Amino acid sequence: MPAGSMEELVSLCKRRGFIFQGSEIYGGLQGFYDYGPLGVELKNNIKAAWWRSNVYERDDMEGLDASIIMHRMVLRHSGHEATFSDPMIDNKKNNKRYRLDHLLKDQKPDVQKKVAELMGEDADNFAALVAALNTRPTQASAAFKEAGVRDPFSGEVGEWTEPKPFNMMFKTTIGPVADEESYGYLRPETAQGIFTNFKNVVDSTSRRLPFGIAQIGKAFRNEITPRNFIFRVRELEQMEIEFFCAPGTDEEWHEHWLEKRLKWWEDQGVPRGKIEILDVPREDLAHYSKRTYDLMYDYPTLGHEEIEGIANRSDYDLGSHTKAQGELGLVAKVEENSDSIAKLTIPHPETNKPVVPFVIEPSAGVDRAMLAVLSEAFTKETLDNGNERIVLKLKPHLAPIKVAVIPLARNKEEITSVAKRIKAELQGLGLGRVLYEDSGNIGKAYRRHDEVGTPFCVTVDFDTVGKGEDTALVDTVTVRDRDTLAQERVKISDLGAWIQNKLR
Ligand code: GAP
Questions:
Q1: Confidence band, pLDDT 50/70/90 cuts, at residue 3
Q2: Which residues contact 173 (CB under 8 A, 6 or more apart)?
Q3: pLDDT above 70: residue 340
Q4: Which residues are registered as beta bridge partners of 218?
Q5: For the chain, percent helix, then strand, then coil, each to nearest 5?
Q6: Distance from the CA of 473 to the CA of which of 218, 283, 443, 464 falls in 20 to 30 A?
């Protein structure tokens, strides 16, 4: 059962309506993708599975949907204005711009080695080498020149500038006056909406530690080099939890969430054996992190890359916003006008004294989840007759279409009316999308539904409506199983329960 390459996946996604290039009719916009008729279903199913597992199936979680554009002060005091940047380097020969670490990774090993040597660093410690290039930009530019670092676009040795930090936040003006005071940011992570609503959620739900707030939503990052299909995009979607706990219990909760998240990925068809756990080295940690586990999924063609980060954010964010509110005089203002105080504290479960809680943050990308789920499901099989079929063996709860109902003859009203009735009845069971499929012959319909991962195809034929040879088959339909290809005759009156049972 060979899996597919990235190229085959991209081709299937376009051909079958999962994912399209954004603004395609105007030549496309790099780093932006649109989810088509089946992509939106798969995406919604992934998000629903995450929400069910992390919110509905727990008793210590609340949900939230905060706004995307945020007050500039939020992102100043979260540390993003100062530190949410990647190192950028330009080739003066063709004005192409690259992310420093991506450019270095794209070089041949001997060039990488030479750069490391010139910088006095160990070539095997990539993170330390990139850090050195960042902190010593003049030496970095000279080392790139001497080592003969090539431009991946032209293939020629580039004329490299000094690397400099590039802040990845999208800035936008708010309202009709475009002055220095009227701008905000598109959030680069959904997390800050959770921190800024911490007090609102505590006050409105009477939550006590430990508890979490979950959110799914868009985030925006002006990536220097978006690439690898939907792996690195500029408009992304995140599924994030901020789990608040008493200081001192954070490390235990960190392990708890690592285990929970690996189990969740497994339930979506992404096995543990395909995920490496990276205990992120100190020098690579984000500015807020005490410790982070990155889950590195083995993507086709790309190899192991981050699918989710599980960070111990300590009391960094709530502490920082509390401090800023004090400095800006906002705590006093709120205290005068309301019962609640703006300080982002909560009673300690043992001492009852106000404490800024610690935070464990499992943060997964929806787009990267899509890519992993599709990669795991993509299967090429050789059938008994020697033909090859492509089939998406998606977990049934993720399948964009749960059942396709196919009338064997498109122009026979006695058959199409029964097929339409069955479709409506199955749709009413709340299984997810059920499709009335009369777009081609039965063989083509099966092929299409294999490729989009529909677990069951139900065919209504002449026997179903009493116009065939076998009268024992009246009021029955053929159900074809996507994975086993087995075909079973099922009574229409039993069909709903039969399918519900199989999907379970
Ligand atoms: N709030 C923490 C945070 O945002 P992150 O490691 O920067 O941490 C979390 O991002 C997850 O978001 C990543 O593990 C990845 O799945 C996804 N992600 C981040 N940047 C992305 C991008 N440019 N394109 C697609 N997904 C991205």
A1: low
A2: 182, 183
A3: no
A4: 237
A5: 40, 25, 35
A6: 443
- Three-class DSSP category at 45: helix
CA of 221 to the centre of ligand 1 (A): 9
Domain with CATH 3.40.50.800 in the chain: 401-503
Say how far apart CA 235 and CA 241 lie, in whole Å. 19
Residue located via tokens 């116009």: 467
Q: What are phi and psi of 303, to 5 degrees?
A: 85, -160
CA dist 174 and 152 (Å) reads 38
Of the candidates 99, 77, 86, 131, the one whose C-alpha atom is nearest the C-alpha of residue 288 is 77
Residue pLDDT, tens place only, 351-408: 999 999 999 999 999 999 999 999 999 999 998 889 999 999 999 999 999 999 999 9
Asked if the model's pLDDT at residue 333 lies above 70, the reply is no
Residue of 474, 472, 477 lying closest to 459 (CA atoms): 477
CA nearest 457: which of 474, 471, 444? Answer: 444
The helix or strand, by DSSP H or E, that contains position 456, with its residue range, turns out to be strand 456-460
Helix 366-377, helix 37-51: angle, nearest 10: 110
CATH classification number, 37-79+174-374, choose in 3.30.930.10, 3.40.50.1110, 3.20.20.150, 1.10.10.60: 3.30.930.10
Q: Which pLDDT belongs to residue 339?
A: 41
Q: How far is the CA of 267 from the centre of ligand 1 (A)?
A: 21
What three-state secondary structure class fits 153?
coil
Ligand 1: residue of 99, 189, 314 to mutate (most ligand atoms within 8 A of CB) is 189
Minimum CA distance residue for ligand 1 atom 18:
365
| pLDDT tens for each residue of 79-99 | 999 999 999 999 999 999 999
Tokens of 47: 């998000």
CA dihedral for 44, 236, 365, 27, sign (positive or negative): positive
CATH topology of domain 85-166: Herpes Virus-1 (3.30.40)
The domain 401-503 having CATH identifier 3.40.50.800: the answer here is yes
Domain with CATH 3.30.40 in the chain: 85-166
Angstrom CA distances, 469 to 291, 379, 466, stand at 70, 37, 8
Q: Is 365 annotated as a binding residue?
A: yes
pLDDT digits (tens, 9 = 90+) for 291-320: 999 999 999 999 999 999 999 999 999 999
Contact yes or no for 132/119 (Cβ under 8 A): yes
Give this prediction's pTM: 0.93
Cis-peptide, bond into residue 210, ω within 30° of zero? yes
Query: What pLDDT is recorded for position 342?
Result: 55
**For residue 365, how far is its CA from the centre of ligand 1 (angstroms)?**
6
What b/e readout covers 284-318, taking b as 16+ CB neighbours within 10 angstroms? eeeebbbbbbbbbbbbbebeebbbbbbbbbbbbbb
Mean pLDDT of 109-131: 93
